């Protein structure tokens, strides 16, 4: 399996190099639960990163157990899942980036790999020190969840591991409240019309509430409710309507219809804050 996976990585890298998307592979940035992320050098010396999607053994077994997802019980089936996951992430990065959402700029998708802008910054979960104004960051996070919903989408894994604060600016950006919040990790995005949409929405909201309470001792009774944000959706001319880009009609591919829980690893509760675990 390992060799085969390296083989697919190699094929993707070779094509991306031949088509002049990237020049060279850098170092590992992150190994997530379903990915390996490396820095890469793009053309004109730009710093990019490449995310290889790897839907692992364990989650694959769960998927198979619950539904006959792919009959071929071999590497290719897993690879197919990984490829779909990457395609889906690229698609949503494109749509969200185009709409001005704070996501990394997508550059190129090849097989199970997504090349995107490298975001310098500090993931929210490493922030141990007090924030001068946690309420401001809290509201930004909740606003982002609401903006996703207005677009017809739920992130589905919106938590401190997938939020990043960029390092531009001078001095202690947290002291001056001068950060830019980015969100990434999109393969599990679901439509607000998904049958469990409310549950996913509430879970995203809860992750933020719980994290802010534990880490920054910040609690707020004001948090978005699914029915409120849904009610506000269609009449707003600034937001996508259903014909525009069919943002939420792309959900019906296989990767998108795998229930979120099936794509998680079993040791989720090792993390005391949220459902997401990253090493
Ligand atoms: N565009 C990016 N710029 C900088 N770091 C990134 C970028 N994308 C991902 N990372 C890093 O890689 C880690 C894993 O990526 P993520 O998309 O969250 O995958 P996973 O599904 O495995 O959690 C992230 O936690 C983050 O630290
Ligand atoms: Mg992640």
UniProtKB/TrEMBL annotation:
**UniProt catalytic activity:** L-seryl-[protein] + ATP = O-phospho-L-seryl-[protein] + ADP + H(+); L-threonyl-[protein] + ATP = O-phospho-L-threonyl-[protein] + ADP + H(+)
Key word Protein biosynthesis present: no
For this protein, the record's SMART domains field holds: RIO
Per the UniProt record, which residue ranges are transmembrane? none
Query: Where is the stretch described as Disordered?
Result: 229-279
Q: Where is the composition biased (Acidic residues)?
A: 241-255, 267-279
Indicate, by first and last residue, each region the UniProt record lists as having compositional bias (Basic and acidic residues): 229-240
Q: Which cofactor(s) does the record list?
A: Mg(2+)
* Flavoprotein listed as a keyword: no
InterPro entries noted in UniProt = Kinase-like_dom_sf (IPR011009), Rio2 (IPR030484), RIO_dom (IPR018934), RIO_kinase (IPR000687), RIO_kinase_CS (IPR018935)
Main EC class of this protein? transferase
- EC id: 2.7.11.1
RIO kinase domain span:
1-231
Gene Ontology terms, MF aspect: ATP binding; metal ion binding; protein serine/threonine kinase activity
What keywords sit in the KW lines? ATP-binding, Kinase, Magnesium, Metal-binding, Nucleotide-binding, Serine/threonine-protein kinase, Transferase
SUPFAM superfamilies per UniProt: Protein kinase-like (PK-like)
Query: Its family?
Result: Belongs to the protein kinase superfamily. RIO-type Ser/Thr kinase family.
Q: What is this protein called?
A: non-specific serine/threonine protein kinase
**What is the source species?**
Helobdella robusta
């Amino acid at each position: 399996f390992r060799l085969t996976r390296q083989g697919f990585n190699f094929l993707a890298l070779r094509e991306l190099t031949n088509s002049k998307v990237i020049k060279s592979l850098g170092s590992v940035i992150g190994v997530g639960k379903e990915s390996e992320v490396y820095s890469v050098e793009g053309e004109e010396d730009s710093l990019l990163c490449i995310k290889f999607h790897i839907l692992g053994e364990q989650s694959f077994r769960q998927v198979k157990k619950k539904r006959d997802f792919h009959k071929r019980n071999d590497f290719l089936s897993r690879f197919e899942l990984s490829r779909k996951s990457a395609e889906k992430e690229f698609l949503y990065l494109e749509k969200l980036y185009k709409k001005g959402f704070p996501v990394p700029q997508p550059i190129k998708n090849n097989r199970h790999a997504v090349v995107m802008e490298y975001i310098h910054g500090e993931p929210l979960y490493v922030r141990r020190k007090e924030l001068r104004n946690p309420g401001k960051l809290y509201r930004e996070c909740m606003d982002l969840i609401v903006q996703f919903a207005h677009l017809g989408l739920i992130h589905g894994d919106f938590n401190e591991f997938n939020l990043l604060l960029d390092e531009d600016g001078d001095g202690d950006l947290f002291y001056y409240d001068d950060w830019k919040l980015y969100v990434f990790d999109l393969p599990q995005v679901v439509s607000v019309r998904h049958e469990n949409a409310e549950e996913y929405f509430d879970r995203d909201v809860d992750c933020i509430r719980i994290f802010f309470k534990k880490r920054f001792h910040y609690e707020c009774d004001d948090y978005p409710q699914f029915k409120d944000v849904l009610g506000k959706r269609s009449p707003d001319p600034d937001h996508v309507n259903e014909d525009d880009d069919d943002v939420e009609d792309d959900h019906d591919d296989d990767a998108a219809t795998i229930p979120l829980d099936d794509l998680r690893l079993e040791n989720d509760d090792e993390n005391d804050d949220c459902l997401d675990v990253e090493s």
